[in-house]
């Protein structure tokens, strides 16, 4: 990068995600820069080092539509800056959704039995994880499950762990 691109890089890594989404449309260079893994890591580092970054994620059903809605609030005022429906993938799959996380802004949405999605509500993007390939015992039933979400910094990848209780 040349010096002016370095300045743009530093400025953009300090902006909120909602601004970055809009700025992807400025030009091809900005689009590729904002999607670059190094940029994303630097932006996350800057975000995590801010002094006031309390976030609260609330899941609720709308009064009239009974649709699932997520509200993401920030700072001590709890002003809502994101108010959105769950990803389309979940609307017809199942009723009960468990929220796991967040971890670096990523939320794990889990539904029965093996429907798992990693979701970034700030950029409204999600990734459907493949269903578990673990063979279940014939005649057994699932009594319960638990999930965990973490980040592997060595591999720069998120990990979802699932514990299934069988009978």
Give a description of the structure.
It contains five helices and nine strands, in the order H-H-H-H-E-E-E-H-E-E-E-E-E-E. By secondary structure, it is an alpha+beta fold. The protein has two domains: 46 residues, no CATH class; 112 residues. Strand 1 and strand 2 form a beta hairpin. The longest helix has 12 residues.
Structural topology:
Layout: H1 3-12, H2 17-23, H3 28-35, H4 37-48, E1 55-61, E2 68-74, E3 79-85, H5 88-91, E4 97-103, E5 106-111, E6 115-120, E7 125-128, E8 142-152, E9 157-166
Antiparallel strand pairs: 1-2, 2-3, 4-5, 5-6, 6-7, 8-9
SSE ordering: HHHHEEEHEEEEEE
Percentage beta strand: 35-45%
Kindly report the average pLDDT value.
75
What's the number of helices? 5
What's the arrangement of strands in the largest beta sheet? 4-5-6-7
Please estimate the helix content.
10-25%
Using DSSP, what is the number of strands? 9
Spatial gap, N to C terminus: 58 Å
Helix and strand composition category: alpha+beta
Q: Please compute the radius of gyration using only Cα atoms.
A: 19 Å
Largest sheet: 4 strands, antiparallel
Number of domains: 2
Low-confidence stretches: 75-81
How does the overall form come out from the CA principal axes?
elongated
Organism: Solanum commersonii (Commerson's wild potato)
Protein name: F-box domain-containing protein
InterPro entries: F-box-assoc_dom_typ1 (IPR006527), F-box-like_dom_sf (IPR036047), F-box_dom (IPR001810), SCF_F-box_component (IPR050796)
């Amino acid at each position: 990068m040349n010096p002016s691109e370095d300045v743009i890089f530093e400025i953009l890594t300090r902006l909120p995600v909602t601004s970055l989404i809009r700025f992807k449309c400025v030009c091809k260079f900005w689009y590729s820069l904002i999607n670059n893994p190094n940029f994303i890591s630097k932006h996350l580092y800057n975000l995590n080092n801010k002094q006031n970054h309390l976030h609260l994620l609330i899941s609720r059903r709308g009064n009239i539509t009974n649709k699932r809605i997520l509200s993401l609030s920030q700072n001590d005022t709890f002003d809502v800056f994101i108010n959105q429906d769950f990803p389309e993938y979940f609307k017809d799959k199942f009723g009960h959704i468990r929220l796991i996380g967040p971890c670096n802004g990523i939320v794990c949405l889990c539904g029965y039995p093996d429907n798992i999605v990693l979701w970034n509500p700030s950029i409204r993007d999600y990734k459907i994880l493949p269903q578990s390939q673990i063979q279940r015992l014939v005649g057994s039933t699932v009594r319960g499950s638990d999930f965990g979400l973490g980040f592997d910094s060595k591999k720069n990848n998120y990990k979802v762990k699932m514990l299934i209780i069988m009978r």
